[in-house]
Amino acid sequence: MAAELTFRGALIAPDLDRTSRGASLRAELVRHSVPIxxxxxxxxxxxxxxxxxxxxxxxxEPRDWTVAELPTEPGRVLLVLDGVQxxxxxxxxxxxxxxxxxxxxxxxxxxxxVLNPKALRAAMGATFRHPVVGLDDAAFIAWAxxxxxxxxxxxxxxxxxxxxxxxxxxxxxxxxxxIVGNEGAGIRxxxxxxxxxxxxxxxxxxxxxxxxxxxxxxxxxxVQHGR
Length: 227
Fold this sequence. Notes:
Blueprint: E1 6-12, H1 20-31, E2 36-38, H2 41-47, E3 56-61, E4 77-82, H3 87-99, E5 105-107, H4 117-123, E6 132-134, H5 137-146, E7 150-160, H6 161-166, E8 176-181, H7 189-194, E9 197-200, H8 212-225
Parallel strand pairs: 1-2, 4-5, 4-8, 5-6, 7-8, 7-9
Antiparallel strand pairs: 1-3
């Protein structure tokens, strides 16, 4: 509702009104003229995608973001997902990008559906406020070149983050797009080939890797606020 999406309706379980939060939510739905239908607890549980649903399901029209809504002015940062397969990771990445002020997220081929229920839950509403655009490789590379986007590819054998940050001023005539790859295989060779920089987050001895969303959060923050 805060994102001003179009609602087709909402289903409500009998126990929603038992909490003040639930009662307030019902009142807010009514105030926004959202059609409400109450349903029996068993039927609601069968419709919900979680083991312990919160008592309300909404049918909405998600925003159809376009590439024109991705900011391309100097100083902006974007996140690119290259074949991130786990919906939970995809949702967390979108939530992280939104929270850290990234201008948008590009989902390349092989990435889990950003509207998958698990991805939507993990994003905690960010999907409806933060531009998320699906592109194929060729369209993304052409768009990046056309708009002067500098590509940073995450790689275990890349340059240490501190080294890249020390010279980032010379590279940022336009926006920077941070590319994170598949949880196991990493970033595909075609994208590595067009990246201006391959960057690594130094890890403690014995540590193998970071979760993709954690790595993206560190990089997005440092690109914008790094030393």
